[in-house]
DNA sequence: ATCGTCTGTCATTAG
DNA sequence: ATCTAATGACAGACG
């Protein structure tokens, strides 16, 4: 069906690129991508199909090949001349259409089966398996995320596409003109060159041959150039700006004392002040330990930063896919993971200025083309991993990261609303794991903000104002930049706040424990002192009675306790005082 | 289905 | 008056 319409569409390279993006993101556009692209993209489609129906296709190809060979043999054996291609060609053309989706083949051959054609048939049937293996990393959306680090394959898609509208084209141009996207431009140029090379070969020569040619190989090489040094520098700079996590604010200064209350001699009870010394030692030591632990905990986040370094642009430029495990999903941490992502080349590749917004801020994007919403959100996930590596650095310092896992769960709803959303549910899962572009990053892309979110958030006020003054931004863009900066700052502040809160909670818990211990110790001491006091009173009473009983008056009679009492002065002198007199003295 | 946790965001306040 | 950090509160995602 769709193939019939192809000639009418005449899609431009940009359109094809968009379609390609959609195709990769959605895994399936509902209609074969070949419907839109019958030149360079055919290979990808073919590969795609091949994966889905690999074995079945292989068998079919073998059959087709046999048919083609038989046809060729007939030509040579029976006529010894070139047989009119009408019959063989149609057959071969149909075969190609079914297998390779290559329309050029049919167009090119209209006369007779030449040696080249036979070669094409052979190449078409046999080589298919190999391209599937070599090409997938770049062409197949189903390729593991790690391969996404090399975005170049997507670039070619942006160049020519009749489907795109003028505004969209302009948006593309603007996006590509962005400093951040310079690498993208380079890639595009490379891809254009490649296309120029490929197309001629496909049209003039044979599309099938192009598949076997090293055409796919160039992509990897191009990828290595995706990130110019200046771009990498930009990244580094952004990382440098990342805030280092604040260590625990808590400081428990408690005397270090390990002594415990020990029963004192009876006599010592008379001089309690001598033993009154606070022993919060154990508590203090614990407190210090706790503080150190807290410090360690607080300093732990930086570990992510370290990891981030491993994802430095260097790996990027090398084009080596990083293992997923390398990128912590969590955006947590003080680092602004998201920002690094923004700066990543991969993202810039995808930047088309169109996408959907899941949150209430979607209205901000009114200015942006709405048609591409789903495309935008889906495209970025592929790039995310590469970004995530660097982004995790931020979660990194406040280079969060990592961040980065499902940072924007809200994206899904938006995608659902997107008209171009792919019908496949498996994409949803992929989105969850890969779609980690922050909403602000998406918004920035949509409004074509010429700054990275990282810069917007982390640049000092002066630098930020200077940067803003260098660009003419619309009201919407200015508002978005301000919001991005505000949210980014607040995000970090919230992370710090929570971190402090946790530290405070831990510190208070330790303090509570120490206070409980001290209370218990004091209660125990009180009990002991009370016991000692009772014992002292008892002994004093005994001594009193003993001394009083030894006293005798002039007649040798003991004094009556009712009439006399013993009293002592400060210097230790003891007086026998009559009860009556005593009361009188007191009165006096 | 529910609950607890984590995270981002907004609104408010203090410095 | 303005900006920024801090923080409470809320909502969504996730296990």
From TrEMBL:
Source organism, top-level taxon: Eukaryota
Pfam family, one: bZIP_Maf
Residues covered by the BZIP domain: 480-543
Record's compositionally biased regions (Basic and acidic residues): 402-413, 424-443
One GO molecular-function entry: DNA-binding transcription factor activity, RNA polymerase II-specific
Stretch list, region Disordered: 300-374, 389-443
Biased composition (Low complexity): 310-321
Biological process terms in GO annotation: cellular response to oxidative stress
InterPro entries found in the cross-reference section: bZIP (IPR004827), bZIP_Maf (IPR004826), bZIP_sf (IPR046347), NFE2-like (IPR047167), TF_DNA-bd_sf (IPR008917)
Gene3D superfamilies tied to this protein: Transcription factor, Skn-1-like, DNA-binding domain
GO CC annotations, alphabetized: nucleus
Keywords linked to the UniProt accession: Activator, Coiled coil, DNA-binding, Nucleus, Transcription, Transcription regulation
Coiled-coil segments on the chain, per record: 40-72, 498-532
UniProt family annotation: Belongs to the bZIP family. CNC subfamily.
Record-given protein name: Nuclear factor erythroid 2-related factor 2
Organism: Labeo rohita
């Amino acid at each position: 069906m769709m193939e019939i319409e192809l000639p009418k569409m005449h899609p431009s390279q940009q359109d094809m690129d968009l379609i390609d993006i959609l195709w990769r993101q959605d895994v399936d556009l509902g209609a074969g991508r070949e419907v839109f692209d019958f030149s360079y993209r055919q290979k990808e489609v073919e590969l795609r199909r091949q994966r889905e129906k690999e074995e079945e296709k292989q068998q079919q190809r073998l059959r087709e090949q046999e048919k083609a060979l038989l046809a060729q043999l007939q030509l040579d054996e029976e006529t010894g001349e070139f047989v009119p291609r009408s019959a063989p060609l149609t057959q071969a053309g149909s075969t190609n259409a079914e297998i390779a989706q290559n329309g050029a083949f049919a167009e090119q051959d209209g006369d007779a089966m030449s040696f080249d054609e036979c070669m094409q048939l052979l190449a078409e049937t046999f080589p298919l398996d190999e391209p599937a293996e070599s090409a997938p990393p770049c062409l197949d959306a189903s390729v593991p995320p790690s391969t996404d680090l090399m975005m170049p394959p997507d670039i070619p898609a942006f160049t020519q596409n009749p489907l795109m509208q003028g505004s969209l084209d302009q948006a593309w141009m603007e996006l590509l003109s962005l400093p951040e996207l310079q690498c993208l431009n380079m890639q595009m140029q490379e891809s254009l060159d490649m296309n120029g090379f490929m197309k001629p070969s496909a049209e003039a020569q044979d599309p099938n041959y192009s598949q076997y040619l090293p055409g796919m190989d160039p992509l990897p090489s191009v990828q290595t150039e995706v990130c110019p040094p200046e771009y990498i520098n930009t990244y580094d700079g952004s990382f440098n700006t990342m805030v280092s996590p604040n260590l625990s604010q808590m400081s428990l200064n408690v005397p270090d004392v390990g002594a415990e209350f020990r029963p004192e001699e009876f006599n010592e009870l008379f001089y309690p002040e001598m033993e009154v010394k606070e022993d919060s030692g154990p508590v203090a030591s614990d407190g210090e330990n706790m503080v150190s632990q807290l410090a360690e905990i607080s300093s732990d986040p930086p570990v992510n930063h370290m990891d981030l370094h491993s994802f430095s642009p260097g790996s990027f430029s090398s084009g080596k896919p990083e293992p997923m495990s390398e990128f912590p999903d969590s955006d947590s941490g003080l680092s602004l993971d998201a920002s690094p992502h923004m700066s990543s080349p991969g993202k810039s590749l995808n930047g088309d200025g169109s996408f959907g917004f899941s949150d209430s801020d979607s209205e901000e994007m009114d200015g942006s083309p709405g048609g591409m919403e789903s495309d935008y959100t889906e495209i970025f996930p592929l790039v995310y991993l590469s970004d995530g590596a660097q982004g995790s650095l931020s979660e990194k310092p406040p280079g969060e990261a990592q961040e980065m896992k499902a940072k924007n769960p809200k994206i899904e709803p938006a995608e659902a609303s997107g008209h171009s959303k792919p019908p496949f549910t498996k994409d949803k899962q992929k989105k969850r794991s890969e779609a980690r572009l922050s909403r602000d990053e998406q918004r920035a892309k949509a409004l074509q903000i010429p700054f990275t979110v990282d810069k917007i958030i982390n640049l000092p006020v002066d630098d930020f104002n200077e940067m803003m003054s260098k660009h003419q931004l619309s009201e919407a863009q200015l508002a978005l930049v301000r919001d991005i900066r505000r949210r980014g700052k607040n995000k970090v502040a919230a992370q710090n706040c929570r971190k402090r809160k946790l530290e405070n909670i831990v510190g208070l818990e330790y303090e509570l424990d120490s206070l409980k211990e001290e209370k218990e110790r004091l209660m125990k001491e009180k009990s002991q002192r009370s016991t000692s006091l009772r014992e002292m009173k008892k002994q004093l009473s005994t001594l009193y009675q003993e001394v009083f009983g030894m006293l005798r008056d002039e007649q040798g009679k003991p004094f009556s306790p009712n009439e006399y009492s013993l009293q002592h002065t400060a210097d230790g002198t003891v007086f026998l005082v009559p009860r009556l007199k005593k009361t009188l003295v007191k009165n006096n």
